[in-house]
Design goal:
Helix content is 21%, strand content 32%. The chain has a seven-stranded antiparallel sheet with strand order 3-2-4-1-12-9-13, covered by helices on one side. The protein has a six-stranded antiparallel sheet with strand order 5-6-7-8-14-15, with helices on one face. The protein is globular. Helix 4 runs antiparallel to helix 5. It is built from six helices and 15 strands. It is an alpha+beta fold.
Length: 260
């Protein structure tokens, strides 16, 4: 069972708290880990086909103060399609219309090669996840989607549900401006979100004996959302509805949400 992590904030943040708890989930997902973020319009992806808790790079990023972005996507992998290779490790990355897209998925799709015909976007690895990502980008390009109108998001939801028809499908992806989060229509594996706003207080990680007082750590004007497969802390997390797409975007120092 792979697990997903997404973050979207009104200001650049360091994901150390969420990433610390998230990387502990690799005991059930030992086949790779990855994290993607946007230092500017371009995406930067770190990933390895090893357990996160055994990775010196993962440990460095957990404690590195220079890792800052408004948007983050993380993934820990339990392989179901494709061997344990770098090319099969999430998140995946492609450019479309001058925007850097990154994509991570959990679940397993059936007959995806026959049902999801690829155009100019081709996969490098062997996974159903990267195949679905390439198909999705091809559909967005063919339709001329730029995410400026409500119809663009409706079309996206339609394509995601079409992919979901082939099996189990949760995904989180971004173009650097939006964070797109889709939950499987049959509630496979769960997807939850947490709105984190001031005033901050103490929190405790579920998977680690570690507590922090956010009031001492965070900018009081900073706020945003964390999305994960399962709650990472003892805070009040909200569940996604089956088949629900939520789109997060920072606009004028606030986080707007479109729900479809």
């Amino acid at each position: 069972m792979c697990e997903l992590l997404g973050m979207c904030f009104n200001k650049e943040v360091n994901p150390s708290i969420s990433f610390r708890g998230f990387r502990r989930r690799d005991k059930d997902n030992p086949h790779g880990w990855g994290i993607a973020f946007y230092p500017d319009e371009s995406a930067l992806v770190y990933k390895e086909p090893v357990m996160a808790i055994q990775s010196r790079l993962s440990e460095f990023l957990r404690d590195y103060d220079g890792l800052k972005s408004k948007i983050f996507i993380g993934h820990v992998r339990l392989a179901s399609v494709g061997k344990y290779r770098y090319k099969n490790t999430h998140p995946f990355q492609r450019e479309l219309n001058g925007k850097d897209f990154v994509f991570a998925h959990n679940g397993t799709l059936r007959n995806f090669k026959e049902k999801l015909k690829l155009g100019r976007f081709r996969k490098i690895g062997d996974t159903d996840s990267e195949h679905a990502f390439c198909y999705l980008l091809g559909q967005l390009e063919e339709k001329g989607i730029n995410f400026e109108h409500k119809d663009d998001f409706d079309f996206l939801a339609k394509i995601l549900r079409q992919i979901n028809d082939l099996g189990k499908f949760n995904c989180i992806f971004s173009d650097g401006r939006h964070l797109f989060c889709y939950h499987d229509k049959n509630s496979y594996n769960g997807l939850v979100l947490l709105k984190r706003t001031p005033p901050y207080g103490p929190i405790r990680l579920r998977d680690e004996d570690w507590e922090i007082n956010l009031a001492e750590e965070k900018d009081p004007t900073q706020h945003g959302y964390i999305i994960a497969t399962k709650p990472l802390t003892n805070e009040n997390w909200e569940r996604f509805k089956p088949g629900e797409l939520k789109v997060f975007k920072e606009y004028r120092d606030e986080i707007e949400i479109i729900v479809i």
